[in-house]
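From the pipeline queue, job 12 of 40. The input is one protein chain; the requested action is below.

Action: predict structure.
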Amino acid sequence: MNPLIVIPDIHGRWDKLQNLLGMLCVLGYTLDNLVFLGDMIDRGPDSARIIDWLIKHRAQYPNTVILRGNHEELMLEHLETGNDTWFRPNNGGVATIASYRRFLGAELKTTPQLLKALRACGHFDFLNSLPFYHETADYFFSHAPIPKPIYRPVGGLTVMESLPLPRELYCWSYPGRIPEAEYAYQHPARYAVCGHIHRLREEIFEARLYDHICFLDAGCGCHSQAALAALILPEKRILYSL
């Protein structure tokens, strides 16, 4: 089987994604075995274009895995309930709506209009169908890190040993002040890979590899100088967009 190529939070940066995919092709990698860790949307200018490309890419390469992140959760919650948390400045929902106005050539002034347009182009069903995690014999992929049972990161929830876990953990779990390697659960006989957490506030613009997990988010979409990373498995090689 071709190597697995894992790509974390894109956050609307079509330019970074294209640079990264081009680099992978130049290096001789194929794009038929990709894993996307969620947070494809928000903040950057091209969320709609990225979602449309992902739909087409997965249709061409059925082995493609695309997970749900907390930003997809925010968008879906707004579309389904009207919750406006998606529009908080740091969340970036306004940029995503602007991208759909350009992509669809429509004003989309209200949430019902946006929902109708997303249903018509197939994007809503695509987003709503995204799984929360993916596992193989050797790897466990999720948007957020799964914490050890001793930590209770979401509403006092305790992590159990068996899947599925409470859905909030897959998208929202966050170490806070706990060292990320110490926080992350060790999946028996499997290497874990997650996105969701960058360390830009510490001026770390890289992914972090540990013995049992890779925190792959290097901050793409959150800082102009932050790259989009890719992890090549099983060699555990990390590449960055230009």
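Job complete. The chain is about 35% helix and 15% strand.
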